[in-house]
Amino acid sequence: MTSRVVRTALIVLLLTGLALLMTQMVAVWLLIFAAILIAVLIRAVADPIHRSGVPETPAVLIAVAGILALLGLVGWMFGSVLGEQFGQLAQRLPGAATDVRDWLARQPFGSGIASTTPDLQTVAGRALTFAFGAVGAITNLVLVLIGAIYLALDPSLYVRGVELLFPRANGPRVVAALNASGNALRKYLLGQLFTMVFVGTLVGIGVAIVGVPSAAALGVIVGLANFVPLIGPFIGAVPGILLAFSVSPETALWAAVVYFIAQQVEGNVLTPIVQRYAVSIPPAVLIFALAGLGGLFGVIGVLVAAPLAVVLYTLVAMLWSRDTLGHDIGVPGQDRRAGDD
């Protein structure tokens, strides 16, 4: 009896220690998940090459080389233009923000708003501090890229490792759920990539037409911001509207119209089409994921919140709602089929 109590107490202490260790390694888990995201994109390029008859490892290496070559080509074609426009943007934005504050202060309704508007110099200083902190994290970026390549080379190896953490009888269900979550994540990322390119191009052309300077840089900003659903489009629109205001209030109004039209096209036309072939996650799930991970981990948490929500939503739908509770529901990224593993 005594030995059983001691063994139970040791198991409880071990589990408690593991739980505390896991909470202390949150940053590591985020880096691992970032590597998984890149690995999923690499496999999305490598799988068609592999299906054409190329062995798996060369197919992954070809995919990595192709992605790097594409990025290098884009940088060679547009790097100098974008670099110049981003430099101009950095010079003009502080003055544009000051113009907005002064204009608001002159309006009967805007004096209170102007007094509570944060000083862009302070915001810029914080951004620079964050940027220099990011420079210190170059090692983490290299680790993520190398880890992503290894994950992409043989994902089944790591899936089998996770399978061994569960009882043998549950192994096939766990593997099926991991494969389903990987498929859902790939479709989500490809859908987001398509949306980002479309919205960025549309905004870049639109703000150029209405006369906003550095239009290509603004298109890149709003395209990247669209990686974060729901709140990203609003954040991405702020620099363009501020810069347009430095031209004239009328230009700022037209720029706001451009952003509004682009987001309406994205939300009402493009997203429903993409979701037919990608993944649809309830907006409330995304909102709480953004709020929770953003509050806990800041910018990094916001960036990974939506992809992580896709993975967790898929695992819960498949392992709990469908396989455990027996509900006839579909799995994100898959056709709606009842009762299959």
What's the SSE blueprint?
Elements: H1 2-24, H2 26-51, H3 56-106, H4 111-116, H5 120-135, H6 138-153, H7 155-163, H8 171-210, H9 215-225, H10 232-247, H11 249-277, H12 283-322
Question: Please, could you describe this protein's structure?
Answer:
This protein is mainly α. The chain is 83% helix and 0% strand. It is built from 12 helices and no strands. Helix 10 runs antiparallel to helix 11. The relative contact order is 0.09. Mean pLDDT is 80; it is low at 123-136 and 336-341.
End-to-end distance: 42 Å
Shape: globular
The whole-angstrom Rg is: 24 Å
Low-confidence stretches: 123-136, 336-341
- How many distinct helices? 12
Average pLDDT metric: 80
Class computed from helices, strands and strand pairing = mainly alpha
Q: What's the β-strand tally?
A: 0
Helical content (DSSP H or I, runs of 4+): over 70%
Main sheet: strands, sense, barrel: none
Beta-strand portion reads under 5%
Strand-and-helix sequence, N→C? HHHHHHHHHHHH
Name the descriptors:
341 residues, mainly alpha, 12 helices, 83% helix, 0% strand, globular
Brief digest:
The protein is 83% helix and 0% strand. The chain is mainly alpha-helical.
